[in-house]
Design a protein that fits this description.
Number of strands of chain A: 0
Oligomer: heterodimer
Largest sheet of chain A: none
Mean pLDDT of chain B: 69
Low-confidence stretches of chain A: 1-12
Number of helices of chain B: 5
Distance between the termini of chain B: 114 Å
Number of strands of chain B: 5
Radius of gyration of chain B: 45 Å
Shape of chain A: globular
Strand content of chain A: under 5%
Strand order of the largest sheet of chain B: 3-4-5
Order of helices and strands of chain B: HHHHEEHEEE
Shape of chain B: rod-shaped
Helix content of chain B: 25-40%
Structural class of chain A: mainly alpha
Mean pLDDT of chain A: 81
Strand content of chain B: 5-15%
Radius of gyration of chain A: 18 Å
Largest sheet of chain B: 3 strands, antiparallel
Low-confidence stretches of chain B: 42-47, 93-97, 125-132
Chain lengths: ~180, ~180
């Protein structure tokens, strides 16, 4: 994490070429946009926050260490932008958008799975912003707990605890039995 | 992680990833325009300092200047005036000199080891003599101090003595 947060001066190391930025961003921009959108509860400001994320990443791309994963790096910037957005304006959780906007069409879900997906998205919207962020990074974007900890600036133990609690709620939601204690 | 949790993770991932908001078609174009505008400042520039930070820094600087000014003023005012030390009255030697009212010359100063001029022997320094003459409790001299004053014209001799068992110097005899 510390390495990820390190900033290098242009004098020490010119860093990667600016042209590389688009090449690295292109494969992950859709996922990043979806993350920002969901992390902000489908807010109308999500597009602005996404653009601010990309702009900031482009601006500080010279400080990016190519030895680290670009995807994790830009997600950490997005995480900071989401936090900044929540600090600026605290809003009540929005309404769950329709299925077309949720993007369920063409996902190949059965009727039962569709209902579960809707309930799961509703549950995610009700989570606290920091919990929602961790949950999305883990289950939607597929980062492991260590990467989630690095992206969000939390401890590994904290992330695992949050995921454990979230998983328990999801298990209740999906109607599964509780874990044997 | 047990297989049950792993299976649940897989289900959660599938259900979450099923709902992916559409990526706006014109977002890439807007993004390109925005980045083109910002291209001139692609390098990080010093961020403008927040007002609260500037105010805090200004207040700290003002406080430091104030402290320095007070210290300078205090040091420029000089040391406090030394306590007024009553000069010891002329002793018997004055009378022996035979010149009433004449002030005897002090003994020549003796150089010390450091090359400084030591005060003439017998010349009392302010605080020391003051303490002795005041006869502070517990600071009585080891041996009594005796001072005699003689006025030959009137055949008067005044004897002052500070004794160990008295706090104050006292007139012990007048002949």
């Amino acid at each position: 994490m510390n390495r990820m947060r390190e900033t290098k001066t242009a004098i020490d190391d010119p860093g990667p070429a600016p042209e590389d930025f688009w090449a690295r961003l292109a494969p992950c921009r859709h996922g990043l946009h979806a993350f920002v959108r969901k992390a902000l509860n489908y807010s109308e400001d999500a597009d602005d926050v996404f653009q601010e994320t990309v702009e900031r990443a482009c601006r500080y791309f010279h400080a990016y260490d190519p030895a680290l994963a670009f995807r994790a790096w830009i997600y950490s910037i997005a995480s900071n932008e989401v936090k900044r957005h929540y600090r600026r304006q605290r809003g009540a959780p929005g309404e769950l958008p329709d299925e077309r906007e949720l993007g369920f069409a063409g996902a190949g879900l059965t009727a039962g799975e569709l209902a579960q997906a809707r309930e799961l998205h509703r549950l995610v919207m009700e989570l606290r912003p920091d919990w929602r962020e961790v949950f999305l990074l883990r289950y939607q974007d597929g980062f492991n707990a260590t990467e989630v900890a690095a992206i969000t600036g939390r401890s590994h133990v904290n992330v695992r605890y949050m995921l454990f609690r979230a998983r328990r709620r999801v298990r209740e939601l999906l109607g599964e039995d509780h874990e044997p204690s | 992680m047990n297989p049950r949790d792993r299976e649940l993770d897989g289900r959660i991932g599938k259900l979450l990833q099923a709902g992916k908001p559409a990526y706006p078609e014109d977002l890439d174009r807007r993004l390109g325009e925005r980045l083109t505008r910002a291209r001139g400042e692609a390098r990080p520039v010093p961020l403008r300092m927040a007002f609260s930070r500037r105010a805090l820094r200004t207040a700290a600087a003002a406080a430091a200047v104030l402290v320095v000014a007070v210290l300078v003023w205090w040091s420029a005012s000089g040391p406090r005036a030394p306590a007024v030390v009553p000069s010891p009255p002329a002793g018997k030697g004055v009378a022996a000199a035979g010149a009433p009212g004449a002030v005897p010359e002090p003994p020549p100063a003796m150089p010390t080891e450091r090359g400084k001029l030591a005060p003439p022997p017998g010349t009392a320094r302010g605080p020391k003599v003051a303490a002795r003459l005041r006869g502070r409790r517990g600071a009585a001299p080891a041996e009594p101090i005796r001072l005699e004053f003689a006025i030959p014209e009137r055949s008067i001799t005044i004897l002052w003595e500070q004794r160990n068992d008295f706090d104050l110097a006292a007139l012990v005899a007048a002949r």
